[in-house]
Design a protein that fits this description.
The protein is 31% helix and 14% strand. The strands form two sheets. A seven-stranded parallel β-sheet has the order 8-7-6-9-10-11-12, with helices on both faces. InterPro entries: D-2-hydroxyacid_DH, D-isomer_2_OHA_DH_cat_dom, D-isomer_DH_CS, D-isomer_DH_NAD-bd, NAD(P)-bd_dom_sf.
């Protein structure tokens, strides 16, 4: 509910901006309006394990999150007695224990998704093209002095399989249609008549068997964790390509590595991982050129990040004024 009314003697409230990997928070948004009203501290790197996060955040009244880069668990909340408000980018954040926050009386607000969904769809399509035409491998070969690398494949006439059909998947389906692909999807919440005319609804097992490119677009839940495992990978074509810009644990990582190394599938591109940032020694970093890795850049564009940081600033300013930021951003707790 904001801080004490003006006139009450107190130190400046402290606001932590977390996981600003590219150093964009204070350049894409003008925070000067909070000069003299709050101390703004930016953390460029992920805070790491629980004890390290507690030590870093113990003195803060507000914490601003960039999507789900930092988990805010019950254990963390219970060890931050000064924390009064959390602002997350996006309309939901599965990394926040909302029940624990509510029980503590901590306000939680989320910004809009901005242009993040369109940005994610664009990156998904970029990864599909990079896999199909082996663009990263061609670049590496050229820099090593080679000229003609292994040929890629065309997308026209190929089958794109979409696991889930929400906003991002619908955008990707539009790109695929423009490229002349056949688009199929599996969805638990949509009927065939609700899909665009260029998208065919299909049962999951049939989708895995039919897809030349399989792209994941479902939320991570207890039910979807490990959705793509050894059984599903065995059903896929030997030259099929798998793309994940949704959530890392949707795929059994060990099973994927085995499938890529044995040639059970043709290739994969991952923008999301079980642990983020991906540890330097993670086995995924050792897989060959049939795996493309991207550091969770789906929503990360200049435009989207500007939207996120400006909306976060506006919510922080409203809360510091002891106002109700819910007119600017939805209240999550």
């Amino acid at each position: 509910m904001g801080l004490e009314a003006p006139g009450v003697e107190m130190s400046l409230p402290r606001v932590a901006i977390l996981d600003d990997y590219q150093g964009l928070a204070l350049t894409l948004a003008d925070w000067s309006g909070l000069d003299g009203r709050a101390e703004i501290v930016v953390f460029r790197d992920n805070l790491g394990p629980l004890d390290a996060a507690v030590e870093a955040l113990a003195g803060f009244d507000m914490v601003c999150l960039m999507r789900e880069r930092q988990a805010v668990s019950r254990a963390l909340i219970e060890r931050l007695p000064r924390l009064k408000c959390i602002v997350t980018t996006g309309v939901w954040n599965a990394a926040i224990d909302l029940e624990a926050a509510s029980q503590r009386g901590i306000d939680v607000f989320g910004t809009s998704n901005g242009r993040g969904q369109r940005a994610t769809a664009e990156l998904t399509w970029g990864l599909i093209l990079a896999l199909a035409r082996k663009i990263p491998a061609q670049d590496v070969g050229m820099r090593a002095g080679a000229w003609a690398g292994a040929p890629g494949r065309m997308l026209e006439g190929a089958v794109l399989g979409l696991v889930g059909f929400g906003t991002v998947a619908a955008m990707v389906a539009g790109y695929a249609h423009a490229f002349g692909m056949k688009v199929c999807a599996t969805s638990r919440s949509r009927m065939a008549r609700e899909l665009p005319s260029h998208v065919k609804l299909m049962e999951p097992d049939r989708l895995f068997e039919a897809a030349d490119v399989l792209s994941l677009h479902v939320r991570l839940t207890a039910e979807t964790r490990g959705l793509i495992g050894p059984r599903q990978l065995r059903r896929m074509k030997r030259d099929a390509l798998l793309v994940n810009t949704a959530r890392g644990p949707l795929i059994d990582q060990a099973a994927l590595i085995a499938a890529l190394q044995s040639g059970e599938i043709g290739g994969a591109a991952l923008d999301v991982f079980d642990q983020e940032p991906l540890p330097p020694g993670d086995p995924l970093r050792e897989v060959g050129s049939n795996l493309i890795l991207s550091p969770h850049m789906g929503y990360v564009t200049r435009e989207t990040m500007a939207d996120f940081h400006r909306q976060t600033r506006d919510v922080v300013a409203a809360w510091l004024n002891a106002g109700d930021p819910s007119s600017l951003a939805p209240r999550l707790a």
